[in-house]
UniProtKB/TrEMBL annotation, chain A:
Protein name: ABC transporter permease subunit
UniProt key word Membrane: yes
Phylogenetic classification of the source organism: Bacteria, Pseudomonadati, Pseudomonadota, Alphaproteobacteria, Hyphomicrobiales
Family membership noted in the UniProt record: Belongs to the binding-protein-dependent transport system permease family. CysTW subfamily.
Organism whose genome encodes this protein: Bradyrhizobium zhengyangense
Membrane topology qualifier: Multi-pass membrane protein
PROSITE patterns: ABC_TM1 (PS50928)
From TrEMBL, chain B:
UniProt xrefs under InterPro entries: MetI-like, MetI-like_sf
Membrane topology recorded in Swiss-Prot or TrEMBL: Multi-pass membrane protein
Protein name stated in the entry: ABC transporter permease
Cell location: Cell membrane
Annotated TM spans: 12-34, 85-108, 120-142, 173-194, 215-240, 271-292
Native organism: Bradyrhizobium zhengyangense
Amino acid sequence: MRKASRLSRFNIASLALGLAFLYLPILILVIYSFNASRLVTVWGGWSLRWYHEFFADRAMIEASWMSLRVAVASATIATLIGTLAAVALSRGERFRGRTLFSGMLYAPLVMPEVITGLSLLLLFVALNAERGFWTVTIAHTTLTMCFVAVVVQSRLGSLDRSLEEAAMDLGCAPVRAFLSVTLPLIAPAIVAGWMLAFTLSLDDLVIASFTTGPGSATLPIRIYSEVRLGVKPEINAICTLVIALIAVVIVIASLASKLSSSQGESAAPL
Amino acid sequence: MSARRIFARPARFAAIAPYVWMVLFFLVPFGFVLKISLSQTAIAQPPYEPVFDLTAGWTAIRSAFAALSIDNFRLIASDDLYVFAYLRSLTVAVTATVLLLVIGYPIAYGMARLPKRWQAVAMVLVIVPFWTSFLIRIYAWINILQHDGLLNQILLALHLVSQPVVWLSTDTAMYIGIVYSYLPFMILPLYATLAKMEPALEEAASDLGAPPWQVFWLVTFPLSLPGVGAGVLLCFIPVVGEFVIPDLLAGSNSLMIGQTLWLEFFTNKDWPVASAAAIVLLVVLLAPLLLYERLQRRQLEEQ
């Protein structure tokens, strides 16, 4: 017999406090971005002043554009390669170098960013590559494809394999069976993977700082150098815009994963 | 041959592109870090010697090899600045991980006890902040913690303090920032194991007369250990090398190793020493990294 309610008062309190802790700081930031006063902490009425200031700031706009391009390019490449990696890991059975392969895919998920950034920069310097858009894109792809691989692999793992096997018993070639049976089923996870890669790239400061060249700063690099000098209301406005963009991305991704998680969430996609 | 085996063959070919990519952009770069960590600092571009020049012929390469030295590692081992930075990184990471576990566990536990329908909502609510920018979340706290920030205003208004408290540039601010940023990483693996747990086990224990704390300590907690392990590793490893949070929120009198490495690289332009610091950091983290990799692989392949 199941007891009527398993939720104790302690459970409810810890959930409420936890969520408040996670959301209040962001909420406060968004509210202050509409503050008319130059002093960040004094409320001077509602205003869009800092948004105007942001759109007049050429350097910030350029950095935002750079970040967006890098995020789209790296997320796309990462999704392609990351999905291939997930397929190989969950359907490839045993192959030579499999342990090294999975090790290389899982390590960057937790590897301190200073190490990843430094090592990639040293590679680019050794190759004499011109640092800028492409080096940052490659660096972000390397990091984010691992996240894509984990998200897609977790979906492939929970998929009923008899579906693709049935297609093959009926005379489908393996590649055909994958493209027409497996791929549509994992498509939502692939979309979610792209979104995750996109936001991770948009967010990254450390790896971008190492791998970019002079004159091509990304948005987090600009924000960081401003924040080091102190709090500016304009930064609140930029942050709010980024949050709004990411919110749109999350809505799309969660719709996609709602389609994907018909069998319930196993393994959080982190 | 079974359909599964036939399917596996082309699936293995899918590994080629990601394999090549990761070897080229993940594995090979570590070779460069290792090599440069053994080189001498030079005022040049790139700022280190010797540079391997494959076109210069065999003798040049051999002399380049001969010029490699472990001086940078000797410097790191003998310089208090580095020793303290490593020790501080480990202390901060251990403290932060314990804080995260203590704060994250009740939240994950509460989530796991919600009705099924609400569990999915709660999970999305915990993941969403992870998607909003890391830097923005730290910045949000600077807003709150600064001298005339919201926290001090509230404390003054409630007459809890008579003067504004200094929050920024303190370890307290740094720990708030770390806990805030890494909380989802701790909650999600904990929640994943707690949600799978059979409620009958806890009920049986309490039916047999165990008080709630004993039910928790003797039944729930031991069963959730895999989640605890995953959450601890997921937080501990990146926090050791954390740069942004201590840089923006903590004081500048004692640095973590991520900051030292950054400083050595960007300000002092001493690439060899920065590389050596990265190698040492990697060695320190090797055991937890391998453990994490095994956990992750087992979790994904057992489904």
